[in-house]
Amino acid sequence: MKKEDLINLVNRPEMISGIYNYCDRWCERCSFTSRCANYAISEQNQSEQKSDPENKAFWDELHNVFQLTLEMVKDSAEEFGIDLDAVDLGNYEEDRKKLEELTMAHNCVRWSKDYITYVNDWFDSAKDLIEEKGEEWESKALLGMPESNIIKETNNLNDIIDVLRWYQYQIHVKLRRAIHGKLEEVDEPDDEFPKDSDGSAKVALIGIDRSIAAWGKMLSFFPDKEDETFKNLVLLEKLRKITEKEIPNARSFHRAGFDDK
Ligand code: SF4
Fold first, then answer.
1. How far does residue 18's CA lie from ligand 1's centre (Å)?
2. Nearest CA to ligand 1 atom 8
């Protein structure tokens, strides 16, 4: 895609600026695909898929540009009397490690990581039951249950599984970003700009809410798995509560497009 085409696409009047910044990236289920520049670009790129040799040429060219740019930076630095080797990064590495440790130790991050494991365990242990459910519906079809009912039931179950699997990892990724951002923001002055930590936490909270609803529906399909399902629900509820407490402005964060009236 050429630079001018990209600019024209992003500036199309129907596009909602920045809508893709705080979405859940589930484009297949998104009602804003026609107003999202990110979606339009990825669609366009897919239709312009390059062959392997073309891709190799692209990366080779980029590497050459990288080398040229580095040389330009060195020349300019010399011209302005800047010693690039003397750039003081201060305690950057130490601070970064500390921040990462604090982030990973936070309950939001630890519990959302546990949730990933819980979901995998649930699906591993429910494999046979899910198969049996399919067989049960096949038998019902043979006994005369209308095909439309069976399709509806199957689609319902598949939708629930899709929702749970979609947010399973995303909740953790978004909370990790939110907590990391919040810890970083501690030293920054409070300004009027929306905070990325609030936006990331909001996306996580939406994933949590939808997952809670999906587990609730799952209970009606597999009542035998009540204990394990409740274990997941309790963890999600704890996660929901602690996220709202730790990042109190998350719910009111305004996401372009999605939260417009
Ligand atoms: S806003 Fe919708 S279409 Fe755009 S990237 Fe997000 S999910 Fe996909």
1. 10
2. 27
**Distance between CA atoms of residues 175 and 170, nearest Å:** 8
Write out pLDDT tens, residues 158-167: 999 999 999 9
Distance (Å) of CA 143 to CA 59, 129, 150, 190, 222: 60, 21, 12, 66, 22
- Which token pair is 176? 């990790």
Residue type, 10: V
Q: What is the pLDDT of residues 18-38, one digit of tens each?
A: 999 999 999 999 999 999 999
What is the spatial distance between Cα 39 and Cα 257, in angstroms, rounded to a whole number?
Answer: 14
Give the whole-angstrom CA distance, residue 248 versus residue 235.
Answer: 19
pLDDT (tens digit, 9 = 90+) per residue, 71-130?
A: 878 888 888 888 887 767 778 888 889 999 999 999 999 999 999 999 999 999 999 999
Q: Which residues line ligand 1 (CB under 6 A)?
A: 19-20, 23, 25-27, 30, 32-33, 36, 38-39
Q: What are phi and psi of 214, to 5 degrees?
A: -65, -40
Domain extents for the chain?
A: 3-47, 52-86, 92-246
In SS3 terms, 109-151 reads as: HHHHHHHHHHHHHHHHHHHHHHHHHHHHHHHHHHCCCCHHHHH
Q: So what's the pLDDT on residue 189?
A: 66
**pLDDT value for 72:** 79
Euclidean distance between CA atoms 236 and 208, whole angstroms: 6
Q: Which of 237, 255, 107 is nearest to 182 (CA)?
A: 107
